[in-house]
Amino acid sequence: MEKYMLILTDTFEEVEALTQVDFLRRADIKIDMISITGKLQVTSNRGVTVLADDLIENISLKEYAGIIIPGGLPAAFDIRDDKRVLDIVKKFNDEKKLVSAICAGPCVLAKAGVLSGRNAVIFPGMESELLDANVKEDAICIDDNIITARGAGLALEFAYTLIRKIKGKVQEKQIRFASVDHLLKSFILKEENK
Length: 194
What we know:
Blueprint: E1 3-8, H1 14-26, E2 30-35, E3 41-43, E4 49-51, E5 54-55, E6 64-69, H2 75-80, H3 83-94, E7 98-102, H4 106-111, E8 119-120, E9 134-135, E10 140-143, E11 146-149, H5 155-167, H6 169-178, H7 182-192
Parallel strand pairs: 1-2, 1-6, 2-5, 6-7, 7-11, 8-9
Antiparallel strand pairs: 3-4, 10-11
Helix pairs in contact: 1-5, 5-6
């Protein structure tokens, strides 16, 4: 089974990070929370402490099919300035593996150089961080193997988008519909048919 990594450091944005872990695991997608702090215990910007699955220095990249980077400040900047993460992003992009980020997280992809000429989004007001990317106004932007989303309010849609990219539309719909009530299911189907 393929597995994915979600990068964590102190001050991460908990909704953006933990929603991905929760929903990908609901879809039977293996995802490891990887700490870059040198310790497994990582604390979010609102004081939520989680225990990462592993430390970045211990992982084997060949075990992973993609990377997910949450936002949160200064977490996103700390991740952006971590050479190990930048090297992973570059390697995974070169191998056409999934490279994804939400909110302020796309600044990491930009610094790694993988957004040059590519479509991407970032948290509103941070567009200058995207350097030479084609900055879009979309909520979520998919450009081949790169997926970016604008902010915490899109955490759930970002998770559904990742599930669809990894496992297909059927699995995405199953997870989406398992997490919403009947009226919302009808609304979603109606919107898809417009």
